[in-house]
């Protein structure tokens, strides 16, 4: 059912889309603009403490702490909050930064937002389905995109097999 509040949220999402020089879409989000929503209490029951800290509170895991850094099998990396496939192993690479990194997301998997926290101007990467904070994207990645999606490993689960 579409409520007035949800319609307003969808309108804000539509109006907030901006084209960036890097080709990313920036979106202003309403609180209920995502397909998967839960209360904070529900998220805390669904996620581990570390997953909740990253996905819902925008924390960052320590560098080199994710087992996904060493993952080399073919497969998909999905959101730990809602299971949406986000990245293919075919776009993963190691820039030596300490977090799983990719040069491209899967189609329609992520959205981005401006992040001015800690005095920085960065581009935050969010799950398109649940709005979970995944990490940031930087314009210093390899070809063909030139982008580096630096993603907290705890925000994802690895699903071996198909690569998307």
Question: What is this entry, summarized?
Answer:
With 164 residues, this protein is an alpha+beta fold.
| Total domain units | 1
Output the CATH homologous superfamily: Peptide methionine sulfoxide reductase
Beta-strand percentage? 25-35%
What is the N-to-C order of secondary-structure elements (H for helix, E for strand)? HEEHHEEEEEEEEE
Number of helices: 3
In the CATH hierarchy, the third-tier topology is known as: Metal Binding Protein, Guanine Nucleotide Exchange Factor, Chain A
Question: Can you list the strand order of the major beta sheet?
Answer: 5-6-10-9-8-7
Rg computed from alpha carbons, rounded to a whole number of angstroms: 15 Å
The dominant shape is globular
CATH class: Mainly Beta
Main pleated sheet: 6 strands, antiparallel
Structural class category:
alpha+beta
Descriptive notes:
The structure is a single chain. This protein is of the alpha+beta class. It has a single domain (41-160), classed as Peptide methionine sulfoxide reductase (Metal Binding Protein, Guanine Nucleotide Exchange Factor, Chain A, Beta Complex), CATH 2.170.150.20. Helices cover 16% and strands 27% of the residues. The chain has helices at residues 4-16, 40-46, 49-55; strands spanning 18-19, 25-26, 75-79, 85-88, 92-93, 101-102, 110-115, 122-127, 133-138, 148-151, 156-160. It is globular and about 40 Å long. It starts with a helix and ends with a strand. 34% of the residues are buried.
């Amino acid at each position: 059912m579409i409520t007035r509040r949800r319609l307003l949220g969808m309108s804000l999402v539509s109006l907030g889309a901006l084209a960036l020089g890097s080709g990313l879409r920036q979106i202003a989000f309403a609180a209920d603009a995502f397909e998967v929503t839960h209360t904070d209490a529900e998220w805390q029951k669904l996620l581990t403490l570390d997953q909740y800290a990253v996905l819902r509170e925008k924390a960052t895991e320590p560098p080199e702490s994710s087992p996904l850094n060493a993952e080399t099998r073919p497969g998909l990396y999905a959101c730990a909050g809602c299971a949406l496939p986000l990245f293919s192993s075919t776009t993963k690479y190691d820039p030596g930064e300490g977090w799983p990194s990719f040069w491209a997301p899967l189609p329609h998997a992520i959205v981005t937002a401006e992040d001015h926290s800690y005095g920085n101007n960065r581009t935050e990467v969010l799950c398109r389905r649940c709005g979970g904070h995944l990490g940031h994207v930087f314009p210093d990645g390899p070809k063909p995109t030139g982008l580096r999606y630096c993603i907290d490993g705890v925000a994802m689960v690895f699903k071996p097999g198909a690569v998307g």
